[in-house]
Design brief:
This protein is an alpha/beta fold and 232 residues long. It is 41% helix and 13% strand. It has two domains: 141 residues, SPOUT methyltransferase, trefoil knot domain (Alpha/beta knot), CATH 3.40.1280; 68 residues, Trp Operon Repressor, Chain A. Bound molecules: adenine (ADE). The site of adenine has 12 residues, from strand 3.
Length: 232
């Protein structure tokens, strides 16, 4: 699942070009019994199976031996801290990090005690495994590594880099079944377009994610747009 995703799109091309390197490790390769067992019943009883600690410990030992000490060992789990832009920035500045994917009902707590430095949740919902969560983190972090996305300016302009949602985009045709593109975008007046976009971004953010505005870094025009909306 993770390998397939790593081969595609912006990330796939970055991996091909060697700008980022991503290794995928199967926990079963770090077991020593015939059945390559990675889980067991929970002490104390209860439903479901718990992922054993040893395969994680061995996997991390192997990775450390081959690639050196990782700057972060992050466990993907709904119990983790919410993964946001700030975490993506922090991870993007690390030379090497390990993402551990949990599965089934839980992971032996000693994995957290002995290995994990960051516990990361991608949202308040439960996935059956951490693989998709890890893929989300890899994609978001890799975008912030210089050279992964061709246009560095577009990364700087991304919504959460600035704390505002994006303004609406349009492309041809200028009229679609009677729905016209806003006039200002056809005007060729760059100043007016910039102002319109800032207002739209502020309006959307205020309507959909007002809490983002508490930490958003606004310029004079954006601040003016916000007070105008507040006085509407
Ligand atoms: N594993 C299962 N659910 C998850 C979530 N919401 N975030 C990260 N890892 C998970």
């Amino acid at each position: 699942m993770v390998k397939a995703m790593l081969g595609e799109g912006v990330l796939g091309r970055a991996v091909e070009r060697g700008v980022v390197t991503v290794g995928v490790h199967d926990l079963r390769d770090y077991t020593s019994d015939r059945h390559r067992t990675v889980d067991d019943v929970p002490y104390g009883g209860g439903p479901g199976m718990v992922l054993k600690a040893e395969p994680f410990v061995r996997a991390c030992e192997g990775i450390r031996r081959d690639h050196g000490e990782p700057a972060s060992v992050a466990l993907m789990s709904p119990q983790g801290r919410p993964f946001r832009h700030a975490e993506a920035v922090r991870f993007s500045q690390l030379r090497h990090m390990v993402l551990l994917c949990g599965r089934y009902e839980g992971v032996d707590e000693r994995v957290r005690d002995q290995l994990v430095t960051d516990e990361v949740s991608i949202g308040d919902y439960v996935l059956s495994g951490g693989e998709l969560a890890a893929a989300v983190v890899v994609e978001a972090v890799a975008r912030l590594v210089p050279g992964v996305v061709g246009d560095a300016e577009s990364v700087r302009q991304d919504s959460f880099a600035r704390g505002l949602l994006d303004y609406p985009d349009y492309t041809r045709p200028a009229s679609l079944d009677g729905h016209a593109v806003p006039e200002v975008l056809l005007s060729g007046h760059h100043g007016a377009i910039r102002t319109w976009r800032k207002r739209q971004a502020v309006r959307r953010t205020r309507e959909r994610r007002p809490e983002l505005l508490e930490h958003a870094v606004l310029d004079d025009e954006e601040r003016a747009a916000l007070s105008a909306l507040e006085n509407e």
